[in-house]
Amino acid sequence: MHVIAALEGGGAERQLQILVNNTDPERYHVSIIFFHRGTGQYLFNEEIELLQIPRGRKWNIIPLWLRIYKAVKAYQPDILQLWVPEIITIPAAFAGRLSGAYIMSSARGSRRSVNSIKRRIRHLASYITHIMADRIIANFNPDSEPWFFRKLFMWKRGCIIRNAIVVNQSKIVKSPFFLIPKGTSFMIWYVGRIIPSKRLDILLDSFAELIEEGLNISLIICGTGEDRLLRKLKKQVRINALDEHVIFPGYRDDWHSLAQDADLFVLPSTAEGMPNVLFEAMLLGIPCIATDIPVLSDILSHKINLWMVKAGSRISLISGIKEMYQSPTLRKQLAQAGQLYARNFSVEKMMRAYEALYNNCNKTSTKQSQLTTEH
Prior knowledge:
Blueprint: E1 2-3, H1 11-21, E2 31-34, E3 49-52, H2 61-75, E4 79-82, H3 86-99, E5 102-107, H4 117-132, E6 135-138, H5 147-155, E7 159-160, E8 186-191, H6 200-212, E9 217-222, H7 227-239, E10 246-247, H8 255-258, E11 264-267, H9 276-283, E12 288-291, H10 294-297, E13 307-309, H11 314-326, H12 328-342, H13 347-374
Parallel strand pairs: 1-2, 1-4, 2-3, 4-5, 5-6, 6-7, 8-9, 8-11, 9-10, 11-12, 12-13
Helix pairs in contact: 2-3, 3-4, 6-11, 9-12
């Protein structure tokens, strides 16, 4: 049984869809507990049981937790895999512990350099599920994480399973004209959640300075997130008179198709797990710029498969964009190397890792059942 708040909208949701749709239905009966279905863009195989729980009012926490608790207890899963967020994973973890399920808790993002109080609280709350879990699964190397998380990861025999990167080539068509600002030739893309840790404010400041220097560029910021931050970013665009150069198309599930003419993909984050969008852009053959945060510098190489800039530095980002803008040869080199590297993160590789983990869970659960029966 998988536990997650929504069935679409982010990296964790996408990875869940890939995982369950490729899990062997002959060996596993798969179910998902969730709050929101969304628009149905993520399709699930018919064998997968979808169990929707009413979210209710925002602050009615106790009735909500009781609904989640009862749903997990009634289902009696052998393996309980907790995703995000903590509002649904914490009560599910309690129910799983009392039901004797083997609990796996997902760590989907770095705890370093988080500049949002809300996300800090969420990271602290996630320790509850990690402590109650039998195993922790991370999609990034935890060596640079806070001391307590590293110790907990070791104690829970944590394992690293990288995301599977998938691009739907069959949907690729010419980008619609309404996304391409008139009179521009160099298209810069950002795709992802609009939250503080993505540092889109630095990207816009850098973009404004590059426009002043005379670069013929456009910026597309594709995604949704915190409404307050989005309004602030749009105000930043108006103040700098960038309305003709910056577009906010919102969330687009067809961005692979729209971005095929992109000249550059930029991810200015100061905190990430394993960002799907970055590796999807690489797989599409788009040259990329990303920050030197540990979870990325651990697996990517500056000037080898992308251009890496100092996290949180406007000057470094400006320099990187200018370097890529001025050198078609460099862009081609990094695009080719990045695309080759991104192919390493296949569905098959991820499924082999989960299969080995599930087999281990089954053996452990069987031993625990036998011990309980004997006593």
